[in-house]
Amino acid sequence: MSETAIHSPLNKVQQSFHWRSSIAWLVLVFTLLVQLAILQHLKLKEDRAARQQFDFLVETTVEAIGKRMVDHEQILLGAAGLFDVSGEVSRAQWRSYNERLQLAERYPGIQGVGFAKAVRPEALEAHIQSIRNEGFANYEVYPPAGNSSLRTPIVYLEPFNDRNLAAFGYDMFAEPVRQQAMQQAAETGQPHITGRVRLRQETHGKIQAGVLMYVPLYEPGRPVASIEERMQALQGFVYSPYRMDDLMRGILGAADPNLSLHIYAGDTEDPDSLIFASRDVPHAEPSQYREVIRLDLYGQTWTLRLESLPAFDAFFHTNNELVIGLGIGLSLLLFFLTSSLSLRRSRAEALAEEMTEHIRENKRALQLSEERLSLALKGSNDGLWDMNLDAGTFYASPRAWHMLGYRPGELQSDLTLWERLMPPADVRQAKAQLAQTMLSAVDHFTTELRFQHKSGTVVPVLIRGYIQRDRNGQPLRISGTSMDLTEHKRIEQMKDQFVSTVSHELRTPLTSISGALGLVNGGALGEVPGSMREMLEIAHRNSLRLGYLIDDLLDMEKIAAGKMAFDMREHSLGRLLEEALASNQAFAAHYGVNCVLRNPAPVNVWIDGLRLQQVLANFLSNAIKYTPEGGEVTLHCTLTDAGHVRINVTDQGPGIAPSFQTRVFEKFAQADGSDSRQKGGTGLGLAITKEFIERMGGRVGFDTSEGHGTTFWCELPVLEASTSSADQGQPRLLVIEDEPDTGRLLHLMLRDAGYAVDRVQSLHAARSKLATTRYEALTLDLHLPDGSGRELIDEVRSNPVTRDVPIIVISAASQFDQHDGDTGIIWLHKPISAAQLLIALTDSLEHARPFP
Prior knowledge:
Elements: H1 3-6, H2 9-16, H3 22-86, H4 91-101, H5 103-106, E1 113-117, H6 124-133, E2 154-158, H7 176-188, E3 192-193, E4 210-218, H8 227-233, E5 234-243, H9 244-251, E6 259-265, E7 274-277, E8 290-297, E9 300-308, H10 310-315, H11 320-343, H12 348-378, E10 383-388, E11 393-396, H13 398-402, H14 417-420, H15 424-439, E12 444-452, E13 458-469, E14 475-484, H16 486-521, H17 530-561, E15 569-572, H18 573-583, H19 585-591, E16 594-598, E17 604-607, H20 609-626, E18 632-639, E19 644-650, H21 685-695, E20 699-704, E21 710-717, E22 723-724, E23 732-736, H22 740-752, E24 756-760, H23 763-772, E25 777-780, E26 783-784, E27 787-788, H24 789-798, E28 807-811, E29 825-829, H25 834-847
Parallel strand pairs: 16-18, 23-24, 23-25, 25-28, 28-29
Antiparallel strand pairs: 1-2, 1-5, 3-4, 4-5, 6-7, 6-9, 8-9, 10-11, 10-14, 12-13, 13-14, 15-17, 18-19, 19-21, 20-21, 22-24, 26-27
Helix pairs in contact: 3-11, 16-17, 17-21, 18-20, 20-21
């Protein structure tokens, strides 16, 4: 037999059926059976998941319908309560009540809320005439009475427009289905709904099935113990009509569209009692999941048929064909591999070993994947915490406990646990910060707190949280994460120490280099040859530039370490702006840019003048560098409504790209970060500017339009001049308060109580007033811009002239540092009311010794 014959296709087929291939056939049969079992298991899991999802949607749908109908019942009960407390309700009152309910926005699908008056035949004419006297000249009660001994015309129905106008005057007791529900409601005293009816509002458009809900009203004071008494005392009905399609869209607007819903008014699926049918997608195959629910609602039974649509069924069975294809392919692959191994015994061990290793790798990969999934489900490295303010409970995840050295459950968890875990010195500030956050309108917050480790060390923790609030904005629950910042702080400290050390070590030799180059260029050592002058000038300029960088680095290091001192004084803003402009004119001339000052505000500010000059220099130098030659940089001021002055520096540059705007005030931020950027700079100037302004009680920002220039601005609080009230024989008081709004409030409280009031905002101004004016009492804030109020207390008590002047300390501090010798002092916590202030002032004046 030739080689060709051996390897022919026919021969290969014959070899496949050789007895040596029996193992391969067994493998094929086994793998097909395994794949069949896997497919069956997958199908069972898919069916179970689909059934669970379907049951969940059914439960959600039924619950939503029931809840909405309960809401409508509460609306009608509220309207009935309006009649109960008022006796008679006017049309205007009825309209105001319904407008306040905001039915269209809060309860979409409701047609309105109305009142049908119970009218006996003998009172019908008088009823018609009374309604006509309200301005409805064509009012009639319809349809004709028939044999009924009771008429229930619709008198009120809001909103009283559009479709609802067609129901005005309609006697609902004349229609059997409505009459049955109204009769049951009147006899039982409970809300009832009707079966399927056609509403009077169906005047145009598609006609929808309708139902109505009735709540009976009885005359106040009449007995209602029996059915006869209730019918005799019947005053009417508060009711709501519902167009079922509109109502169900309002209830199920966000429901899963892959479900079909049919609602029948009754306990059977009678087509004549169908009141709602969802817009189903036509499908040939029957639904795989269906359920019939009978819902008892206010004397009526609704039958709900819910069925899955093809899209729902397909969602849970999308991979069957793929699994079958892969299974068959894998089985055939294993068959051919096994057959090949059987026919090639020489390679059997190698292939078996390779497959075994492959299986092991898959197992390890699967195990690793399961471990990763488990770790991901357990959460990230951050700790989780939850404070339920309503229930008064606190929860923390094991990671949150671990970062503080505790085991879960080791400490008793309550809402005050976080206070007990903080250093005592931090509790007051943290509670004040938390209270401010809770009173604000924010939902998310981020803050850094310090907690005590079980070992006694302090652990810095970054807290991120979300505040869940009720409709009135009151916090109900706070949840979030906690991250250990110990390593981050250590790295930051190392970086700051490195920058500080390098900066200080560079400054000394750099000062020598700059000074030496300056002397050489200035000719102190003789005439510099022309060939060397240009290179020496380049070296001098860059040494100065390096010096500026080091100064910026040192400033940032001082700010980060909290060592930056501010010499806060009262300054004329206009004078400072003129000095800043003059200082930068030479720099502007070098770039061919004109700098102008417009509208300098004639106000005083309480700041460190040197630091503000540094801020303005940063603003102006940046504006000059980015303004084209021949352009103009404008320095101007505006006063804000909040008692601040805004200083603006506007350039004519290219503006700031949107991608860079969020990083403008970050450290080392450069709009052009490339090695070849056109504009120099350290990237620290604006970061330092932001720190300086915020430390001086202001804020910074910018307005830009790409291609049309940029305006950098800073806002500072205006220092108000000392204010005095005219003395007309009243006792004169001195208010010492740096916060403008609080100072004005105290001034008004005392002035309206009949006192003459002087108001100042600093220790310096207070000392000047006390030296020249006699005061009956003082109000004092302990935290003032140029010192502590405790200093002033000691000065007043040490002065024989003012020793006995009563002092009322008004501070936001939760604890006061009181001394044994603090006589004649009353301590009040902010915020205070006018009554608290005046009572404290009266008591202090009554107990004070006569003023010298």
